[in-house]
Amino acid sequence: MRAATYESTGAAADVLRVRDVDRPVPGPGQVLVRVAVSAINPTDLKIRSGATPRDIDVFQVPHMDGAGLVEAVGEGVDEARIGQRVWLTLAAVQSRWGTAAQYSVVHADRAMPLPDGASFDLGATVGIPAVTAAHCLFGDGPIGGRDVLVAGGAGAVGRAAVELAAWAGARVAATVSGPEKARIAADAGADLVVNYREADAVQRLQEWTNGVDRVVEVALGPNLDLDLSVSRPGTVIVTYAIDGPDPVIPVRRCMVAGVALRFVLLYTVPLEDFAAAVRIVNQALSAGALTLPAITRFPLDQVAAAHQAQESGAVGRVLVDIPD
Ligand SMILES: NC(=O)c1ccc[n+]([C@@H]2O[C@H](COP(=O)([O-])OP(=O)(O)OC[C@H]3O[C@@H](n4cnc5c(N)ncnc54)[C@H](OP(=O)(O)O)[C@@H]3O)[C@@H](O)[C@H]2O)c1
Predict the structure, then answer these.
(1) pLDDT 10s per residue in the chain (324 long)?
(2) β-pair type (111-113, 192-195)
(3) Ligand 1: centre distance to CA 162 (Å)
(4) Is the minimum distance from the CB of 52 to ligand 1 under 6 angstroms?
(5) 227: domain range?
(6) For ligand 1, what atom is nearest to the CA of residue 176?
(7) Does the residue 287 lie in any domain?
(8) Which of 24, 51, 66, 211 is the most exposed place for a label (fewest CB within 10 A)?
């Protein structure tokens, strides 16, 4: 099969190549998926570059997320799944078989049925962003009728969080850095969108809410002051990213505010919580509540260019088309 692979970490153009490798065989509990579309997430870039080190078992096929058709099943998996359309996530966790190849093998629980109306493109974009968003939003209880703040509401996780929160009946505010991203967050269902770089951001949020119930936070350090300014006792601030230095937590201010801080890394979310988040994503997909973001696409042969596009901050998602 054709596959993108790397054998050592480094810059995309230096380490990624597309070549023929043997097709994997599904082991017990696994499914073999004929991949149609592979999606890139920041974690794929961090692992490929070496920023988050992982052992490489001879070679690594990159990308956690994708969508395709179940081609075969391993021992213990219902054969009725053969031919099923699926979305994949965490394919490359402790496995060399990421989704940037004609075939991937994953545990059957990481190949979720894709509803009839949902395209492979949409299926490839849900994965890590939507499961992370669902766990951040719903991990502390229902949010219907609650006020939710999504920091970076136009990012992959942020946009999914806005869509899921709006679908669940929450009032949703989002922060963004400019007008293009404001449109994305508003189209996703945010009731209020504010530019976090503008001086009146806190004031506009305070006029909108008496205190948010949840914050889905992409940048705790820069935003903690804003988050605390729009919190009330019981607010849960859920952080899922750290791209700069660790922030200093103002412990007394957090105590006085009565907030809870929760930290999420999808790789260490307990299995039952992961499954609960996946169920929510499936329900939202079936309801048509998760929609396709703007897409930049590349053929598999240009996978290095696809990584570079994601690294240079392409708005929306970068997808890789897998050849037949
Ligand atoms: N913990 C986990 O399991 C998990 C899961 C998924 C992703 N992540 C991590 O989460 C981060 C985002 O992932 P992604 O896929 O959503 O990336 P993305 O699509 O690039 O989105 C990142 C967003 O963050 C926003 N942002 C940056 N600084 C901000 C700030 N100070 N205030 C508000 N928004 C800010 C950006 O918006 P502006 O350009 O408008 O500032 C951008 O829209 C990455 O570091 C990724 O590795 C972690």
Answers:
(1) 999 999 999 999 999 999 999 999 999 999 999 999 999 999 999 999 999 999 999 999 999 999 999 999 999 999 999 999 999 999 999 999 999 999 999 999 999 999 999 999 999 999 999 999 999 999 999 999 999 999 999 999 999 999 999 999 999 999 999 999 999 999 999 999 999 999 999 999 999 999 999 999 999 999 999 999 999 999 999 999 998 899 999 999 999 999 999 999 999 999 999 999 999 999 999 999 999 999 999 999 999 999 999 999 989 999 999 999
(2) unpaired
(3) 13
(4) no
(5) 128-268
(6) 40
(7) no
(8) 51
Rounded to two decimals, what is the model's pTM? 0.98
Question: Residue 284 domain-assigned?
Answer: no
Decide if 165 is inside a domain. Answer: yes
Question: What per-residue string of b and e applies to 269-295 under the rule 16 or more CB within 10 Å gives b?
Answer: beeeebebbbebbbbbbeeebbeebeb
Between the alpha carbon of residue 19 and those of residues 23, 100, 278, 286, 303, the distances in Å are 12, 11, 33, 36, 12
Report which ligand 1 atom has the smallest distance to the Cα of 42.
47
Helix (H) or strand (E) run with residue 22 in it = none
The conformation of residue 94, written as its DSSP 8-state character, comes to T
Domains identified in the chain, total number: 2
Both 258 and 308 in one domain: the answer is no
